[in-house]
Design a protein that fits this description.
By secondary structure, the protein is of the alpha+beta class. The chain is built from 33 helices and 9 strands. The strands form 2 sheets. Strands 1, 2, 3, 4, 5, 6 and 7 form a 7-stranded mixed beta sheet that branches. Strands 8-9 form a two-stranded antiparallel ribbon. A hairpin with a 2-residue loop joins β8 (403-404) and β9. The chain binds flavin-adenine dinucleotide.
């Protein structure tokens, strides 16, 4: 009996050491104490145990010996399995920094740190800009006119863009721009996106990766002083050209070149580049006056030095230079923002036309990646979230106004499911958008989180707009001025493709970059392995490796404990309703980190090619972030009880998604025994999560079906209107009229003992008024509600589609 107790104590002690990631010396002391205790209990000295102990204790704790016996061999092996990392990959990996993603990669996220970050907020000036000029701009936009009649923004919209400096949101005030925060920038794009995707993309592009941003970060003082005010005022129309027929996702494979040579510029001979390019898909190119062009620079005549191949370089080329070709247009799924090819043949540009001048020759890829690590978190996430807000507002209203089988369609469980997803995804996207924008405004440049945002907000957009279309049925399909959904739906693949196509982002970038950047030890090990200073490399690798081993053991032990206890004892903030989600996220963080470490250990560089596994790891990391953001948003907004269903649904959906991804990893893990072993530790009692339940889904969907503070919070900054002649206002107006009419309709039905239906509606209203069941004012109100509801479900009709 005492033997059994002893064994249990030993297991508990070693498990505690593992759980709390105890240092090696403590493990050594504990093992020695264990051996002494065993000798004392059994009255027999465990000789073999002591021999093994001494060998291990000495070889693990005496560092030079440890390096000689263990680490040097492992370092040799690691160097062999380390995937070759190209210069372009290394630069992409190095871009930006880490923030909350690094906490999620520890297996024990520090919730106090997350909740302690200030709630993102707009300044008074930014709020006034949104409520004033942006609202006015949105009101003036007619998306059908833009996408069908003009295939361009109307002159008045271009005028407003210039007047309100919408192209200069990120340009500092000293250069005549608006100097907005990332949150304001994101919110402006989002709001315009709820009105017209074409207008939003037009405004978005000069404020994201392109001449403006590149000049702000890398431009010379002369370039900034000249170009930034002109860009802010809209006197220059910028575009940025990287993509070409042979350059898509693999942007490093650029064939466009620039050769150092002497040439004539503004009547003077000067040194510069002769650049040729063939680019396509370039937004704003057809009307651009200033072209940012990425090309590979060469110096075959050694006019600059010994090096011939100088690397990717960014030119800033006025489009009126001889040899520049712009003007033709592509048709990106019927969106009307300007997009087209640009070509240049032997265009001579002086060094002054390089962004940042000669010191940035060959630095183009690094400059682009650094800007992308921030910009990717703003524009497309804003469009995706805006789509969610717009879909929430109009689909909820439509589902309440539109009746079938005498019931508002939103009350059918099938439709309710779609409404639930629309609202739940929207809450989560908005939470992640705000949290990340807040981080950017505090100076973070979280490249992994920006990839997560880009992917999940655009995939969220695909989901919510697909659901919104389903709920609208034919009303969503028939195109025309009344249709407020179809153009956004058509444009979804544009968002999916740009700024890192989604399949690539999910399969390679999120976990590929996340594992290297956010993992506490992997990058240190990789740096040591690729260092030429072998003595230092051995010491650094040894330190990182043993810390890594302790970290992995600790996360394995934590995963098992949290799995067995349902994470019930894990410290967590929040209130009675949300505490459990923090706990489950801590559990999933430990499981993710542990399984990721085992995966990286087993596959090493091969992980890069195992995109399906990498994608699943990326899904878990992403949902850890999305659910964290959801909880933070709830706290930031003062825990409004009405929002709780949204928070719970989003968290449950994320937990279930993580479980599905984990299940996929365990089932498809290349080594089956390792898959089983990991399953034992991370899901010891089976799968813990289920999809969010129907009752919760019902509460979420209900929030969209009638006006409320929760609905307004969810759709804050979506363009709204109560003008019955506006496509969106028409639906809002109908919702309010329908809800106001319903008690009177009930009174009428009871008084007449007859059921109202579209066919007898006006007849029964007249009969009720004649019999005094309802008064004249009520009768007028019902007639109007009936007409307004009809108007809201009507679609456009054209005499001749060719001339429509
Ligand atoms: C409307 C629009 C506007 C644009 N605006 C600009 C602009 O202003 N400036 C600019 O320079 N570019 C612009 N682009 C280009 C855009 O960035 C590219 O389309 C994008 O980089 C993808 O390149 P691609 O279309 O050639 O697709 P490809 O690179 O050919 O990719 C095709 C598919 O393969 C997948 N894929 C590729 N490699 C991998 C991999 N290793 N693992 C897994 N999947 C992979 C991709 O995810 C994608 O699904 C625009 C594109 C569009 C459609």
């Amino acid at each position: 009996m005492s033997g059994l107790i002893f064994v249990l104590i030993v297991i508990a002690a070693f498990w505690s050491l593992a759980y709390f990631a105890a240092p090696l010396w403590l493990w050594t002391v504990a093992a020695a104490v264990g051996l002494v205790a065993e000798g004392w209990l059994t009255h027999v000295a465990p000789v073999i145990g002591w021999v093994v102990f001494l060998v291990l204790a000495v070889s693990l704790n005496v560092h030079p010996l440890r390096r000689m016996l263990i680490t040097d061999h492992l370092l040799g092996w690691f160097r062999k399995v380390l995937p070759p990392i190209s210069e372009t990959e290394r630069i992409a990996i190095d871009a930006g920094n880490t923030w909350w993603d690094a906490d999620l990669f520890t297996g024990r996220p520090d919730w106090k740190k997350l909740l302690g970050t200030p709630a993102p907020a707009l300044t008074e000036e930014e709020q006034a800009f949104l409520d004033g000029p942006v609202d006015e701009f949105c009101k003036s936009l007619d998306d059908w006119q833009i996408t069908h009649d003009l295939f361009d923004l109307p002159p008045s919209a271009w005028e407003q863009i210039r007047k309100h400096r919408l192209f200069g949101m990120i340009i500092p005030k000293q250069y005549g721009g608006l100097g907005f925060s990332a949150l304001a920038h994101s919110t402006v794009v989002m709001k315009i996106g709820t009105r017209s995707t074409s207008a939003a993309v037009t405004v978005m592009v000069p404020n994201s990766l392109g001449p403006g941003e590149l000049l702000m970060h890398y431009g010379t003082e002369e370039q900034k002083a000249y170009y930034l005010p002109r860009l802010a005022r809209g006197e220059e129309i910028p575009c940025f050209a990287l993509t070409g027929p042979y350059v898509g996702s693999d942007a490093g494979a650029l064939p466009d070149d620039g050769v150092v040579c002497k040439g004539m510029y503004q009547g003077k001979e000067t040194l510069g580049f002769r650049v040729s390019w063939d680019k396509r898909y370039i937004t704003l190119a057809p009307i651009a006056t200033l072209l940012g062009v990425a090309f590979k620079a060469y110096d075959p005549d050694h006019l600059l030095g010994d090096k011939e191949d100088l690397g990717i370089t960014l030119g800033l080329i006025p489009t009126n230079l001889p040899g520049v070709e712009i003007g033709k247009r592509h048709n990106p799924l019927n969106s009307a923002f300007m997009n087209g090819p640009t070509r240049g043949t032997d265009v001579f540009i002086p060094f002054d036309c390089l962004i940042g001048g000669t010191q940035y020759i060959g630095q183009g890829w690094r400059m682009l990646m650094n800007c992308l690590s921030v910009g990717r978190a703003i524009s497309l996430p804003a469009l995706g979230t805006g789509a969610g807000k717009h879909a929430s507002r109009v689909t909820g209203a439509y589902a309440r106004v539109r009746k079938q089988f005498r019931v508002p369609i939103g009350k059918f469980e099938g439709v309710e499911e779609a409404l639930t997803r629309i609202a739940g995804y929207t809450y989560r996207m908005d939470a992640a958008r705000r949290l990340t924008a807040g981080a950017l405004d505090r100076g973070e440049k979280p490249s992994v989180l920006s990839a997560i945002l880009k992917y999940h907000c655009t995939e969220g957009m695909r989901q919510v707009l697909g659901d919104a279309m389903d709920v609208h049925g034919g009303r969503g399909v028939m195109m025309g001025p009344r249709n407020y959904l179809a153009r956004g739906y058509q444009a979804v693949p544009v968002s999916i493709t740009v700024e890192g196509a989604n399949i690539l982002t999910r399969s390679m970038i999120i976990f590929g970059q996340g594992a290297i950047r956010a993992h506490p030890y992997l990058l240190k090990e990789m740096e040591a392995a690729s260092s030429d200073d072998h003595a230092k490399a051995a010491v650094d690798f040894d330190r990182a490796l043993f810390a890594h081993i302790g970290f992995t053991i600790s996360n394995g032990a934590r995963s098992l404990f949290l799995g067995l206890t349902g994470a019930l004892f894990s410290p967590a903030p929040g209130d009675g309703a949300t505490r459990r989600y923090y706990r489950q996220l801590s559990r999933m963080s430990a499981a993710f980190t542990f399984t990721a470490d085992v995966g990286l250990l087993m596959l090493g560089g091969e992980m890069k090619r195992r995109e399906k596994l990498s994608a699943r790891y990326g899904d878990i990391l992403s949902h850890l972030y999305l659910a964290s953001a959801t909880l933070k948003q709830y706290e930031d907004q003062g825990r409004p009880p009405a929002d709780l269903p949204l928070v719970e649904w989003a968290c449950q959906d994320s937990l279930y998604a993580m479980q599905q991804a984990l299940e996929g990893i365990l089932r498809n893990f290349p080594s089956r025994p390792f898959g089983w072993f990991m399953r034992l530790l991370v899901m010891p009692l089976g799968r813990p999560y289920a999809p969010a339940g129907d009752r919760l889904g019902h509460k979420v969907a209900k929030l969209l079906l009638e006006p409320s503070d929760a609905r307004d919070r969810l759709t804050r900054h979506a363009f709204t209107s109560s003008d019955p002649n506006d496509p969106v206002g028409r639906m809002e107006h109908a919702l309010r009229q329908t809800l106001a009419a319903e008690p009177v309709e009930e009174k009428l039905q009871q008084g007449l003992k007859k059921r109202l239906a579209p066919a007898n509606y006006l007849k029964l209203v007249a009969e009720g008024a004649a019999k005094g069941v309802i008064d004249a004012r009520e009768a007028a109100m019902l007639k109007e509600a009936h007409a307004v509801a009809r108007d809201a479900i009507d679609v456009d009709e054209f005499g001749n589609l060719r001339n429509a």
